[in-house]
TrEMBL record:
Protein name per its UniProtKB record: Actin-related protein 2/3 complex subunit 3
InterPro entries xrefs: ARPC3, ARPC3_sf
Similarity section: Belongs to the ARPC3 family.
Native source organism of the sequence: Dermatophagoides pteronyssinus (European house dust mite)
Gene3D superfamilies named among the record's database cross-references: Actin-related protein 2/3 complex subunit 3
Membrane-spanning residues: none
Length: 187
C-alpha cells in the first residue's frame, strides 16, 4: 500500500494548531522572508510548504484519509484542497491571462476560517482564540493562497501559446479526503 506524503517543513510558531511556516513570496502579508531553518533539512533543493504542496499533490490527492503527524501537515492539507479549487478555475478558462486573473481573484476573495460553519476542516483545525488571532490566520492563509496561485499558473500554463497541462487539469474533479473547499462553482 502506498504511503501518504507528509510535510517536512518545521516551525516553532503556530496560529491555532496550524504551523506558521515561512515561504518564498512576492505578496504582502505576515511572511516577509524565507528563513532557512523552516526548510526541509534533508532536501538539498530547499522546498518550502508551497513547493511541497505541488510536489506531493498528485500522490496525496488520491487518499481519503490523512494522519496528521505535525502542525505543518495541516498547511499541506489546506493547500492541497486549495489547489483543487484552482484547477477547477483553470479548467474553465479560455486563455492563460483569464486563468491568471481568475486565480488572483480567488486568492483574494473572502474565505471561511476554522470555526466558521462553512469551513470544511473544522474537525482538524482549532478555532482562533480571539479576533487578533483570527486576523493573523486570515492574513497568513491569504498570503499562502496568493503565492500558491502565482506559482500554480506558471506550473500548469507556462506559456500563453500552449494549452494548460492536461496532467494537472485532470485532477480538477478529485476530492482530497472526500472534502472540497467549495469556493468555485462545481461542474
Amino acid at each position: 500500500m502506498p504511503a501518504i506524503y507528509h510535510s517536512g517543513c518545521q516551525s516553532k510558531q503556530k496560529i491555532g494548531n496550524m504551523s506558521l511556516l515561512t515561504f518564498r513570496t512576492k505578496h504582502n502579508g505576515p511572511i516577509k522572508s524565507l528563513n532557512n531553518e523552516h526548510l526541509r533539512q534533508e532536501d538539498p533543493i530547499d522546498l518550502d510548504i508551497i513547493d511541497e504542496s505541488f510536489y506531493f499533490f498528485k500522490s496525496n490527492v488520491f487518499f481519503s484519509n490523512f494522519e496528521i503527524t505535525c502542525e505543518s501537515d495541516r498547511n499541506l492539507i489546506y493547500l492541497t484542497l486549495y489547489i483543487i479549487e484552482c484547477l477547477k478555475l483553470i479548467s474553465k478558462s479560455t486563455n492563460r491571462r483569464q486563468a491568471q486573473q481568475d486565480l488572483i481573484n480567488l486568492s483574494q476573495q473572502k474565505f471561511a476560517l476554522p470555526g466558521d460553519p462553512k469551513f470544511p476542516l473544522n474537525n482538524i483545525y482549532l478555532k482562533p482564540k480571539n479576533s487578533v488571532e483570527a486576523d493573523e490566520m486570515r492574513n497568513y492563509m491569504m498570503q499562502m493562497r496568493q503565492e500558491c496561485s502565482t506559482r500554480l499558473i506558471d506550473l500548469i500554463w507556462p506559456s500563453s501559446s500552449l494549452p494548460p497541462s492536461k496532467w494537472w487539469i485532470c485532477f480538477a474533479r478529485r476530492k482530497f479526503l472526500n472534502i472540497q473547499l467549495n469556493e468555485v462553482d462545481t461542474y
